[in-house]
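Reposting from the mailing list since nobody answered there.

I have sequence plus structure tokens for a pair of proteins and want to know whether others read the tokens the same way I do. The first protein:
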Amino acid sequence: MHRVAFFDDLAPRWDELSRTGDSRMLEVLGQVPIVPQARILDLGCGTGRTVRYFLGRLGPAGRVSAVDFSPRMLQILKGSIRDPRLACIQADVGELPESLEGFDLVVLFDLLPHLERPREILIDLSRRLLPGGQMVLAHDVGREELNRVHCEQGGAVRADRLPGDDLLVAWFQDAGLEVEDLQATPSTYLLRGRKSPRPLR
């Protein structure tokens, strides 16, 4: 099944399926420093679990650009969250509009294993960060469990895996990000890097 169709089919049940991980989502994202006026790019936002969290941490000047390639996921998000600080964009993470740039924080929550060409995408996403901005790769499940679930789920995500730490760190470094936090537990995963505050010469 095509990936978009796969996630479109899951959309009506997505909140119910993911609810068991809400406390772990709060645990892992709660470790990410966010200023009230931040501009956040939330990739693979689904029906809005992370969007609600980020909006709750932002002040009136903050902004969230929520991206997903599933029209049904975004339809549910738009119907449940109405906030002037939120912009919803239907797009593939590997083919983002050039106008999506100038972010303080780029977040890939429960997303990276589903990406084709992840190294190249991370390099592109880093380009969209402001100097000193952060990129976060996070999961509300540990690597072993995540990989097992995808294998058992089958279909479009059957072969999707979260790579090892060494490779992920190397990809962050290739993208010009200095790793500031790496936590791999049986129940969560967090990799956080920061773009140099000074333009590279």
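The second protein, same order (residues first, tokens after):
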Amino acid sequence: MSARASGARGRLQVKHKDLVRDEFTRQAADFAASPQIRDRDRIDRLIAITDPPRDARVLDVACGPGHVSLAFAEVCREVVGIDLTEAPLRIAEQSRQERNIANARFQLADADRIPFPDGHFDVVVCRFAVHHFDDPRRMVGEMARVCRVGGTVAIQDLISSEHSDRAEYYNRFERLRDTSHTRALALSELAQTIASAGLELMRFSSDQFDNPVERWLKTSQTPPDRAAEARAMIDRDLKEDLSGATPKRINGELFFTFHLATVCARKLPRRDRGTSG
């Protein structure tokens, strides 16, 4: 990459991180209170598929309000949650203090430059954040770097259609709602991203749930003009089946389907890493 291209790439990354900070500063409280984010059953399923040892040192990347971090702290020796934005970290720390959890801590940090040495953690997790990463391979590579050999990297995130035009339609209305959304990966791309980081997929589960559009827009405090455009796209999707999000109306209220994947991978010794295609 030329110096000019590298500089341009760097400026785009800075701009995107500013978008993330802006969005999650504004929506921190609503995001923390969202039923989908707080859903303890889904968090417990993430912990179950990760199956961490009791003495594990855990890193929660893009931890937001800390729901996942504090749940892992109930079953593991030590948990560190990192996030790019201060507002959700303040909510996480307040929750930690209220629950008197001593084996978790939170700090401001960037997922593409995780401030810990190689192999520092036994388990590295990331939930509902890959679709905000501007360079998922780099971020997942950082997660793998700070995980010990033989340790576990687990990701739970939105996934999009394997058909690029349908995936783009879905991601377009997600970006209207939240400008820090980059794109939800297709499941095959998520698997390839994991493999490219020297990780081997061990366990996988999928899930879906109906998402009420008005609550979805309220959580992110989407401006009225963008909210109207997102609604129009989803309503068109209901009629024409354009994204795989299968919109529907229930008692007159508009919903679409969130498709989720949870993947759990093991970090391979360097000598065992092959090519991922």
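Reply #1 (J.P.):
I read it the same way you do. Residues 3-162+179-209+260-271 form a domain with the Rossmann fold fold (CATH 3.40.50.150).
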